[in-house]
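Appendix B: complex inputs.
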Amino acid sequence: MKAVGIVVEYNPFHNGHLYHVQQAKEKSGADIVIAVMSGPFLQRGEPAIVSKWARTEMALKGGVNIVVELPYSFATQHASIFASGAVDILHSLGCDYICFGSESGNIQEFIQTFDYLQKNEALENEYIKQYVNEGYSYPKAKSFAIEQITSTISGQPLNLSTPNNILGYEYYKAVKKNHYPIELLTIARKQADYHDEYFSSETIASATSIRKEMLKEDSIQSIEPFIPGSTLHILQTYKDNYQVFHTWENYWSYLKFRLLQLTPRELASIYEVEEGLENRIIKYAKQADSFHHFMSLIKTKRYTWTRLQRICVHILTNTTKVEMSNLTKPAYIRLLGTSKMGRTYLKEKKKNILLPVISKLSSYQHHQLDLDIRASRIFAFGAPLSSQQELIDIDYKMPPIMIDTEK
Amino acid sequence: MKAVGIVVEYNPFHNGHLYHVQQAKEKSGADIVIAVMSGPFLQRGEPAIVSKWARTEMALKGGVNIVVELPYSFATQHASIFASGAVDILHSLGCDYICFGSESGNIQEFIQTFDYLQKNEALENEYIKQYVNEGYSYPKAKSFAIEQITSTISGQPLNLSTPNNILGYEYYKAVKKNHYPIELLTIARKQADYHDEYFSSETIASATSIRKEMLKEDSIQSIEPFIPGSTLHILQTYKDNYQVFHTWENYWSYLKFRLLQLTPRELASIYEVEEGLENRIIKYAKQADSFHHFMSLIKTKRYTWTRLQRICVHILTNTTKVEMSNLTKPAYIRLLGTSKMGRTYLKEKKKNILLPVISKLSSYQHHQLDLDIRASRIFAFGAPLSSQQELIDIDYKMPPIMIDTEK
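Resulting structure:
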C-alpha cells in the first residue's frame, strides 16, 4: 500500500480541505491519506476552536485514513520547525508522497527556488541579517532576502510572502535536506485566500472567515455551505457538550493571572521570551482588559503578531527554554484516529514504522509527551467551569477514534 | 497622646469587634486605637471576603483611629510569625498598649505561662519533637507539649488549644522577647466561639457564622443583628460594585490552572511546600472539582487544614522560598486609613515612628512590598471578569481612607 502525507490543522475542516484530501489521493495515486495535525494549540499561536478529537473525527469523515498528532514542541513553532517536525513524522510512517497546497500548484517553482537558494545560502543569511538590523521581523527579513535573491531566477519566482508557499517551501526543504525518499506534490489553493475574512465563493471559504462567522452568532448554520455536513454536526455537538468554541479571549484571564503572578525573571525562562520582552509583557498585562487589547499593546515592528501569540501560548502552557532545549526530532507518533484502510496500512507497515506509535498515553513516557499532555489539559481552561474537568480528563483517557466506513 | 494597638482581620467587622475596640480604649485609657490588619489573604490561608479597603472603612467607622496593613509575608503565616510581625509594627508606631481577646480575659495566665515556659524551653522543644515524630502536626504537638509542661503550674493553666489564646500568647511572647515597652491587656471574648458556625447570641456572632450566612443567600439582611450598620452598608456596596464576596472557591479554577501548568520541581520552590508534598498536590489537583474537594483530598494528619490553605495561598500568589528567605522584620508601615484623631497622632509622633510610613505605593520600593502588591492583584481574580480590572488597579492607586468624624 502507498500513502500520501498531508500536514493539517483543520480549524475547522472545510470544503477546501476536502478538496485537498481528494486531490492528494488522485494526484499521488496513493491508497491512503495520512494527516499529521496540530494538537490543541496551532502554528499561529492560537488555541484550536475545538479539541483535537473533534478535529480528528472531521478529518476521518472527510476521507483521511490516519490522523496523528504533531507534538506541541513542533506545532506551536515558526514555519521551519513546524514543517520539519511534520515531515519527520510522515517519513517515519512510511509516506511515499507529501502533498501540500500552494498558490500556483506548480512544484517546479519550489524545486527551482530550493536549488537556487541552496547555492546562495551565505548571501541569503547576509541579506536576512541586514533586514533584521533595519528592524524588520525575522520572517519579513527572510521573505525580503529570498525575493531579492530569486528575482534573478529565470521564469516564475516563488512568492514566499504567503503562508501556504512558506510552509510548502519548508516541507520541500525538510524532505530534501534529510534525503527522505518522498515525492513532493502541490495543488493550487481553490479560491479563498488564507487570510480572507469574508466569504467570496459559494462553497469554498477560508478557515479564518468560517471561524469568524461561527463566533458571531448563536447558530452555526451560516457556515453550512462551506463545510461538509459531518463537520457541521461535529461542531454542533462540541458546542452542545462543552458550551464553547475556544478562542484566545477565553484564556485571557488565566494568562493575565499568570502574568500578574510571575516576576520578570521567571517570565524570561519561558521559551521564546527574549531581549527584555518580559518587562514589556508584564507591564501591559496589568493594563489590558482583553487578549486583543494586550496583543495590540505589546506588538512592535520587530515581532510578528503570530510570534507574540506563540509566546503567549508558551506562557499559558508554562513551556520553558530548558524543556525545549533538547527537542530536535519527534520521539513518538501519537495516533488520534484511523479508518479501516488506515488500520490495514498500519498493520502492513508495522515493522517499518520508525518511531513508537502511541495509542494509550499511560503506556508510554517521554518528556516531549509531557508537554503534549500539559498543553491538552491547559486547553480545557478555555471552556466554562462546568466543562473543564471533562476536557481535562478526556485527552489522557481517549483511545484513537476508529471509523469503519471509507469515504 | 497614648495609643493602644490591636491585631485584626475584620472578616467582616462585627459587634464583637466593636466591643473589642471600645474595651481596648476603656481598659488602656489610651487616646486612640491603632489596628494592624491582614491584607487580602488571612492568617488561616483564606482570601478576605472583601478587599482591605472595604475592611478599613468598617474599622474606621467602628472607632479605630489608624489602620495599617500587616504585610503579606507576616499575614499568611502561622501564629508565631504573624504575631511577631504585627507586634513589631504596633511597636514601631509607638503603641503603649496592646489589647487582645482571650478566652478568660485574665492576663495573669499569660504572664505565668510565659515565665514558666521560658524556664522550660528545652523541655518544651523535646516534647514537641516527640509528638511530631508520632505524626502530629506542629501546632497540635506544640499545644500538647505546653499542656504537659504547664499542668504543673499552680492555679489556672492557660488553655493553648484555642486560636485566640494561641495568638494572644504569641503577642505576649513577641513583646517580652523584644523587650518592647508595651503593656499587654486582654479582654474576654463575648459569647460566640471562634469557630462557631451558628448564631448563638442576639448581637454577637463569630465571623465564621456571619460569613456562612452572607454566602448563603442573595440578601445579607440576616446578618444585620450581628454587625454595625456601617458594616452592612459597606458589604452591600462592595457586593453591588464587584458582584462578589471572595471565597476560596472563586479562585479554584486559577489555582487548578496553575497546578496543572507547573512541574513538581517548580512547585517545590513555593514557600512552605516541603517533604514531597508537591507530588501529592499535583496528583489531586487533576481530580478535584472544587477547592473544598481538593483540600479534603490532600489533607493528612501531618498537616493542619490551615497550613495547607496557606500553602495554597502561596501557590496562588507564586510566593517562593527564595522571596521569603530574608523577611525577618517588617520594613515599612502601609497606611490604609485614618480618622482625624489618628492623623493628629501621626503628626505628633512623626519623628518617633521607627519605620517608613507609606501612603502612596509609587513612592516606595521594597521587595517585601512587592509581595503585598502582587497579593492584592491576585486577590482581584476572585471577582467576576467584569470587576477584575478595577480591583487590580485599586490597590496601587488608592490613597489611605480618611474619615473626619470620630465615633
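Residues 118-159 of chain A form one domain.
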